[in-house]
C-alpha cells in the first residue's frame, strides 16, 4: 500500500519535481526527485533520473538481496551519466541536475538512497526519524556549529545544495540500510514539503489521519503545505511499513 503525489505549489510556474515507482517481481521501488537548472532543464533532469532508475531495475529481474546495494548505486550512477552528458550536449540543458531520494524493498531488506536535499523519514508508532542527511550548504554550517538548527530553517542560502545528480561526472551516493519492523510508514519527499512543514508537524498530521487512504493522506499533507505558502513544488510518497511492535528493532 502506498500513496504518491506531486504538486506545482502556490508560487512556481513549472513543476520540476518528479515521482515514480516500480513494483516488479520481488522488488518495490519508490523515487522522488527535485530538478534544477535554467528554462525547463530541471524538469528534464528529474524525469531522466526517475525513469533511468526504474528502467535499470526493470531490465535486471534477477538481482539478489546480497548485491542490492551495489545495483542501487549503479542505477543512480547511470542516471548521473545520462543527465551529465545531455547537459554537455544541449545548451538549453547546461548545468541541469536533480536531487534523488529513493527507497527499494526486496524480501526483508529495505534500502534508502539519497543525493541532495530531498528526504526520507521513518514514521513509527510514537515518533518520526529522519533517515537521510541533506547535502546542502546550510547542513554543512549546522554540522560545523556555525548556525543552529533553528537558524537553518530560514537561512538565505537554504536552497544551495552541495551534491546533485548530473552536475558532475562522478557522484557520491548515500545508502542507508533500515529495519522495516515496527514501521508504520516510510515517507519520501522533496524540500518543498519540509520547507513548509517541520518533521514533528508531519508526524502529527500523519498520526491524526493515519486511518485514511494513503493517496488521500498525501493530498491532506499537500493541502497543508500550500496553506503555509507552497513556495516550491511539493512531492511526496508514503509507503506502508511492517507494524510489528513486539520486535523492537531500530534503524540500523
Automatic annotation (TrEMBL):
Family annotation (Pfam families): PP2C_2 (PF13672)
Enzyme class of the recorded protein, top EC level: hydrolase
GO MF term (any one): protein serine/threonine phosphatase activity
Domain of life: Bacteria
PROSITE patterns: PPM_2
Alphabetically ordered keywords of this record: Hydrolase
Protein name: Ser/Thr phosphatase
Species whose genome carries this gene: Clostridium putrefaciens
Amino acid at each position: 500500500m502506498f500513496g504518491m503525489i506531486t504538486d506545482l505549489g502556490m508560487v512556481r510556474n513549472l513543476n520540476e519535481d518528479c515521482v515514480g515507482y516500480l513494483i516488479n517481481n520481488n522488488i518495490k521501488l519508490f523515487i522522488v526527485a527535485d530538478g534544477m537548472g535554467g528554462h525547463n532543464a530541471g524538469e528534464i533532469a528529474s524525469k531522466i533520473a526517475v525513469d533511468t532508475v526504474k528502467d535499470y531495475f526493470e531490465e535486471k529481474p534477477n538481482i539478489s538481496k546480497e548485491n542490492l546495494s551495489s545495483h542501487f548505486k549503479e542505477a543512480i550512477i547511470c542516471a548521473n551519466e545520462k543527465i551529465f552528458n545531455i547537459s554537455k550536449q544541449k545548451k538549453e540543458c547546461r548545468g541541469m541536475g536533480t536531487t534523488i531520494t529513493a527507497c527499494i524493498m526486496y524480501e526483508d531488506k529495505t534500502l534508502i538512497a539519497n543525493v541532495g536535499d530531498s528526504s526520507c523519514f521513518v514514521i513509527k508508532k510514537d515518533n518520526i526519524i529522519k533517515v537521510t542527511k541533506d547535502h546542502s550548504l546550510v547542513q554543512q554550517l549546522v554540522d560545523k556549529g556555525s548556525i543552529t538548527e533553528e537558524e537553518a530553517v530560514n537561512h538565505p542560502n537554504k536552497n544551495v545544495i552541495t551534491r546533485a545528480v548530473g552536475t558532475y561526472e562522478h557522484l557520491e551516493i548515500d545508502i542507508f540500510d533500515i529495519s522495516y519492523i515496527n514501521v508504520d510508514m516510510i515517507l519520501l519527499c522533496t524540500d518543498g514539503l519540509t520547507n513548509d512543514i517541520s518533521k514533528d508537524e508531519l508526524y502529527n498530521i500523519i498520526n491524526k489521519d493515519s486511518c485514511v487512504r494513503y493517496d488521500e493522506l498525501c493530498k491532506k499533507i499537500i493541502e497543508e503545505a500550500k496553506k503555509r505558502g507552497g513556495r516550491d513544488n511539493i512531492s511526496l510518497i508514503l509507503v506502508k511499513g511492517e507494524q510489528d511492535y513486539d520486535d523492537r528493532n531500530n534503524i540500523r
